[in-house]
C-alpha cells in the first residue's frame, strides 16, 4: 500500500490482509498504555502534546466519545466477515471473547461514566462462553489465557491497569502458593 492509498470500501469488520487475529473493531482498543490519549483522540482532540512527563488527562469530550465507541462495539452486528480467523469467536457485538486482543476491552468501561457495564459484559462472557465440559472454553486457549481471564475475572480483578474495578463472583478469595 502506498502512503495515502486506502482500501475502499472500508469496513471495520474486515480482517483479511489488514489485521491479524482481529479487525479494526477489536484492534482499536489495544492502547492499554494510554487509554486517556485514545479517548481524547476519539473525542476529536487534535492538540499535540508537548509535556510527556505527566500522564495525559482524559477530557470530558474524550470520555463521552470513549463510552459511545465502546457501546458501538458491543452493540454492533456480530456478523463475521468471510475472511475472519478461526480465532475470532465468541462475539458480543464486534467484541471477540475467543481471542486475546480483546480480553481487556470489557474492563475499559471502568474509565467511563458507566463502569457498571464492565460487570454486565464480563458476566455475560463468563456465562455464555465458559462451561464445565471438555469443550467448555470459547476460542483459542493460548498458553492458558482463556482460563486465566476467567479466573481473574471471577476473582474480581483484571490487569488492564492496576486499580481497575471489575466484578468478583466470590465474596472472599485467597491464593496459596
From TrEMBL:
GO cellular component, one term: cytosol
One MF annotation (Gene Ontology) recorded for this entry: peptide-N4-(N-acetyl-beta-glucosaminyl)asparagine amidase activity
Occurrences of domain Glycosyl hydrolase family (ranges): 9-47, 60-165
Origin: domain of life: Bacteria
GO biological process, one term: glycoprotein catabolic process
Residues in coiled coil: none
UniProt cross-references to InterPro entries, sorted A to Z: Glyco_hydro_92 (IPR012939), PNGase (IPR050883)
Name of the protein in its database record: Alpha-1,2-mannosidase
Protein's organism: Photobacterium aphoticum
